[in-house]
């Protein structure tokens, strides 16, 4: 593995992704046709905000965690966002999470799995990378696939 990737990997804390999975599980089957996603935003060891998906038309997990962090007075510049699913790339019922992440100057996004939704499917990751955000994929991937299995079935 290239050294640069190893350095990035060393900054990734599995427990934050595990926490994001837990937050997602808390709203299983309470999010309408949206996936039950969890999100944690950190700087170093400090958790700035946590969130989960809300019913259709309301905040996605990323937007929820951003709001939660800002309510506590935290700036998100240079922070790391852990999300169980790839941030959405298009403005649907809510603004695009990838765009919001860029706007808030979050510098690193760690995801478990990509969003198989035909309008996202790697477009969220691409949008983030093109805007200079570091993206790490596949962290706790198996657990995320297990957690979101029922929702993922729609796309198989
Ligand atoms: Zn979203």
Summarize this entry quickly:
With 156 residues, the chain is α/β, with parallel strands linked by helices. 37% of the residues lie in helices and 18% in strands.
Distance between the termini: 31 Å
Shape descriptor: globular
Largest beta-sheet details: 5 strands, mixed
Class inferred from helices and paired strands: alpha/beta
The oligomeric state is: single chain
Secondary-structure blueprint:
Layout: H1 3-11, H2 14-25, E1 38-43, E2 46-52, H3 61-71, E3 80-85, H4 97-103, E4 108-113, H5 123-130, E5 134-136, H6 141-147, H7 149-152
Parallel strand pairs: 3-4, 4-5
Antiparallel strand pairs: 1-2, 1-3
Helix pairs in contact: 4-5
Which terms summarize this structure?
alpha/beta; 18% strand; 7 helices; globular; 37% helix; 5 strands
Describe the fold and architecture.
The chain is α/β, with parallel strands linked by helices. It is 37% helix and 18% strand. It has seven helices and five strands. The protein has helices at residues 3-11, 14-25, 61-71, 97-103, 123-130, 141-147, 149-152; strands at residues 38-43, 46-52, 80-85, 108-113, 134-136. Strands 2-1-3-4-5 form a five-stranded mixed sheet. The relative contact order is 0.16. It binds zinc ion (ZN). Zinc ion is lined by residues 60, 62, 87-88, 97.
């Amino acid at each position: 593995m290239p050294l640069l990737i190893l350095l990035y990997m060393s900054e990734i804390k599995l427990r934050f992704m595990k926490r994001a999975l837990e937050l997602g599980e808390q709203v299983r089957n309470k999010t309408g046709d949206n996936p039950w996603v969890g999100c944690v935003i950190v700087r170093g060891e400090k958790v700035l905000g946590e969130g989960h998906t809300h019913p259709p038309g309301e905040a996605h997990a990323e937007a929820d965690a951003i709001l939660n962090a800002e309510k506590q007075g935290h700036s998100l510049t240079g922070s790391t966002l852990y999300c169980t699913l790839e941030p959405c790339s298009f403005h649907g019922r809510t603004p695009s999470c990838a765009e919001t992440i860029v706007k808030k100057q979050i510098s690193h996004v760690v995801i478990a799995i990509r969003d198989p939704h035909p309008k996202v499917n790697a477009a969220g990751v691409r949008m983030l990378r093109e805007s200079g955000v570091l993206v790490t994929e596949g962290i706790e991937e198996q657990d995320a696939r297990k957690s979101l299995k029922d929702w993922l079935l729609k796309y198989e």
